[in-house]
Amino acid sequence: MHLLPAHNGQTELTAAYLQRQARSLYWRGWPLAEIQRELGIEKYQTLASWKRRGKWDDANPRQIIEDRIEAKIASYLDRDDFNEGHMKRVDFLMRMMERSARIGKYETSGKEGDLNPKIARRNDDAANAKREEKRKNALTRQHWQALLDDFHEKNFDYQEGWWDQRTQRTRKILKSRQIGATWYFAREAVAKIAEAVLAGEQPRNQIFLSASERQALKFRREIVGWVRRVTGVDLTGKIILFDFGNLIDDAGEPLALDQVGLYPISTNSNTAQGESGDFYFDEFFWVHGFAQLRKVAAAMATHKIYKRTYFSTPSTKTHEAYAFWSGEEWNAGKSKARQRAFDTSHKHLKTGAIMPDGSWCQVVTLEDAIAGGLGALVDIEELRAEASEDEFRNLYECEFVDDTASSFPWARLAPARVDTFFKWRDFQPALLDIPGGRPFGDSPVWIGYDPNKQGRDDAALAVVAPPLQPGTHVFEEWDLAELRDYFDWTPFFRAWELHGTYPKILDDDVVGESARSLKADADAMLDRIVAEKWFTARGVAGLWPCARHGDDVVLHDADGETHTVLPFLRQQVKKSRERANMCLADFIDPAGDWLGGFAVGIHGIEEHSKRFLADKDDYSDILLKALADRFAEAFAERLHQHVRTDLWGYAPQEQLTNAALIKEEYRGIRPAPGYPACPDHSLKPILFDLLDAEANTGISLTENFAMYPTSAVSGFYFGHPEAQYFGVARIGRDQLEDYAARRNVDIATAERWLRPNLD
Fold first, then answer.
1. 86 vs 662 pLDDT, higher one
2. How much is the average pLDDT of 224-253?
3. Domain limits of the chain?
4. Which of 119, 285, 314, 575 is the most exposed place for a label (fewest CB within 10 A)?
């Protein structure tokens, strides 16, 4: 009886195959003589030698079992009637072989991981570390435990009290300033995830809704900094999405946990409206439109498993969140029999209490926080001395301001608040205490406020920076060497039909060699232009008081008796999401504002051009004119910077590299007549009259509004923080007629000016 399948023909049996069959039969209990006859081995001595050299008698039981399993597998595979049932048996036997092999490996190494691959995966630090490197925001169980331990270790007593109430469906907390609420709740969100992960349960998304983008990002910074300090892991992404694919349980099985995220959003963001989870509403007494925002936020936590936390310092009793806090909103519409009193006194809520609406509420004053462990970090008497009595009660004793009799109550002021991260792009709050860190430095500004007494629209607050040096400024000869540093080389190469972005174009596989050669020639000519003063850069800039009237901007002279009207065109295109059609006049305040203009030109080209042409050196002539154009554009860029930082002075702290200037990372724009936002070239004569450009710069206009010399640039300055470039594109007959009326010209003339933009 064969234990291994018989081979087709004795002559084909190899010595190794015969040895394995012989060994298998021997381990089965066959005597050597019977094995010799069964396998047809010629000499008994050969079989005895195999037995001695193979140490058949020294085999352990596991080896014998593996041999039997192997033989059984082979017998199944050799069957002509092999079917699905046989396949299942083979699969089972293969698993037995694998298990036996792991036992053998364990017998040699003594490592438990060799016996259990799940344990091996769990304990393989190098492999785990390598996998972690490929994952974003992946923390180990040890990391999560360390975060949870550190969280509790660093909490004050009153913060641990907040943690004890984490399972409440709704928490409302009125708190003093400087007691670490934002710091705590940022960590609490992560601690709740850690708690769930360590219990093998599915964590929930954590959503932070703040009064401003700055405050929302503060949540993120707190979390990122804390996790880095405790675990050494750098969390990435504005929205932090945790990857749990690396986690396994104590038995070595993967934890089947869905990805969750930390969503820091501001009140002007819709980022997380499609998400669900626990949400935190930070400083909810300081946002405009609280009622609507609460509906949006509450929708994120519709399901009862999600928790809602509101925390804030108090503002005023006229704020719409006060009705939410005081119970007025909950009682509204209920019969007197069903109405319940909300005791929101500090005495009642000092340690927290459940209110009639089911929410858990607490009032934490600065003295409460000090009693709860904060005393080492703050000096209450110092804070009391620095603030007025009313201010101290509001900020640190959680008392609301009663501003119902104020000239400017909070309810009217709130609609005029803006998120500085969006409205004041040049405002850097972290730099307030640094010279030059304020948006307008220490320069005076004009502030206008419309309290919206009629209720038809939002209140408005306008901040206008009057120029430090208004009027007209003439520059007879700007330093060419300085302008060279402001070159944008990309258009230069495109003029030679070498397409690519500078400086990458110099290393381009296709045009790199040509670009490098051209750049070398340009640099050589530039050296001569600057050293020998081939060109003269002349310019003028003006800054004028103005106001918006519809789509016109009206400029007033110094005495206010005369004015100049600049008519602008508005887009007439269909836009998605109800976006408005834009007009340059939109960037001017109707109540009073400022507008600028400029013209710059490069003189001296003709003399050198004639010389190159006389020598039949067309290449040098073209190169000369291309460089003159670069000087003109560089002059326009440098003058605009001078206006922003010195003449107008609305960006005194600006310090941008040339690369940043090319990317237009500054505040303000300088659209030119004839370009997409201002397509009417006929505005150039108006601009030139305002600047007296021909006298001040030597630039003249042809009857078709072309500038001479041709290496010249002119345009307007808009300083509004939201000013941006756009294209007017096609306009309709209605705007054409309106524009003709505003310009006081006939339709035919207006058509000639605006022909490229007409339907």
1. 662
2. 85
3. 10-115, 135-396, 471-728
4. 575
User: Residue 280 has which token pair?
Assistant: 């935190």
Q: How many angstroms separate the CA atoms of 177 and 286, rounded? A: 13
DSSP letters along 523-548, please? HHHHHHHHHHT--EEEEEEEEEEEEE
Residues in the chain: 759
670, with CB counted inside 10 A (0-12, 13-18, 19+), is buried
Structure tokens belonging to residue 678: 């201002």
- Classified as helix, coil or strand, 489 is helix
Q: Which CATH architecture group holds 471-728?
A: Roll (3.10)
Distance CA 684, CA 133 (A): 59
What is the overall mean pLDDT for the chain? 84
Q: How far apart are CA 635 and CA 541, in angstroms?
A: 12
DSSP state letters, 553-600: EEEE-TTSS-EEEEE--B-----GGGPPPPBGGGGS-TT-EEEEEEEE
Contacts of 23 (CB under 8 A, 6+ apart): 50, 51, 54, 56, 67
> pLDDT tens, 579-589?
788 999 999 98
- For residue 363, the surrounding DSSP H or E stretch is strand 360-364
DSSP letter at 754 equals H
The CA distance from 268 to 423, in Å, is: 12
Does position 695 have pLDDT exceeding 80, yes or no?
yes
Grouping H, G, I as helix, E, B as strand and the rest as coil, residue 686 is: helix
User: What is the full DSSP assignment across 134-165?
Assistant: HSSS---HHHHHHHHHHHHHH--HHHHHHHHT
- Strand blocks (E) in 623-719: 700-701, 707-708, 712-717
Cβ-count burial of 713 within 10 angstroms (0-12 exposed, 13-18 middle, 19+ buried)? buried
User: What class, spelled out in words, does domain 135-396 have in CATH?
Assistant: alpha beta
Q: Supply the pTM of this predicted model.
A: 0.52
Is beta strand 563-567 parallel, antiparallel or unpaired with respect to 552-556? Answer: antiparallel
656-693 pLDDT, tens digit each: 889 989 988 898 999 999 999 999 999 999 999 999 99
Cα distances from 584 to residues 339, 468, 682, in angstroms, run: 55, 23, 16
Q: Tell me the one-letter amino acid at 164.
A: D
Identify the CA nearest to 594 among candidates 642, 633, 643, 561: 643
Q: How far apart are CA 195 and CA 201, in angstroms?
A: 8
pLDDT per residue as tens digits for the range 183-222: 999 999 999 999 999 988 999 999 988 767 777 778 888 9
Sign of CA dihedral 522, 524, 530, 532: negative
Using DSSP bridges, classify how beta strands 278-282 and 260-266 pair: parallel, antiparallel or unpaired.
unpaired
In this prediction, residue 457 carries a pLDDT of 55
The answer to whether the Cα torsion of 637, 640, 642, 644 is positive or negative is negative
Residues 586 and 720: their CA atoms lie apart, in Å, by: 9
The yes-or-no verdict on residue 13 having pLDDT over 50 is no
